């Protein structure tokens, strides 16, 4: 997340997206959004300096279909807090099938974990029991995260000025 990113809320205060500063200022100037929070950094323009918005809220409700949490490499890594689920390392991460594909292990949230290359090589095409390795946490599908992708949500939770506007999911609450 950049310091010039802005949290965009729907009219009902539900997070819609994280947009760039230019898009947020455009929405405010066109009268489509209101500024709720301002950042501490001033922005210089040709007509002077102004305080950049940090959180903006749409003046009207934007209708969106309910998004689904997609199973992707980035989502699995974010769910596991970018930590190897066997040794706890945070370096050189990849994805591991707990039950190997050749044994009938599915490509699902419950069978994928973040894993460092060293542990992945050590485990090979065995189950954790066969390789004498233990998982730190049992993999499972995360609860629904509204509108923001899981990696974006986790980065957004790090911004103190946005925390009030983001829903709290206890499984990802590493802020407090």
Structure notes:
The chain has 2 domains: 5-65 and 145-172, no CATH class; 73-123, DNA Binding (I), subunit A (Orthogonal Bundle). It has 4 helices and 6 strands; from the N terminus they run ββαββαββαα. It has helices spanning 21-29, 73-79, 117-123, 150-156, and strands at 5-9, 15-20, 33-45, 48-58, 93-97, 112-116. With 176 residues, it is α+β, with helices and mostly antiparallel strands. The protein is elongated, with a radius of gyration of 20 Å. The mean pLDDT is 86.
Largest sheet: 4 strands, mixed
Estimate nothing, just give the exact number of structural domains: 2
Tell me the distance between the termini.
19 Å
* Structural class label: alpha+beta
Roughly what is the average pLDDT, rounded to an integer?
86
Name the poorly predicted regions. none
Q: What percent of residues adopt helix (DSSP H or I)?
A: 10-25%
> Radius of gyration, Cα only, in angstroms?
20 Å
Binned strand content: 25-35%
Count of helical stretches: 4
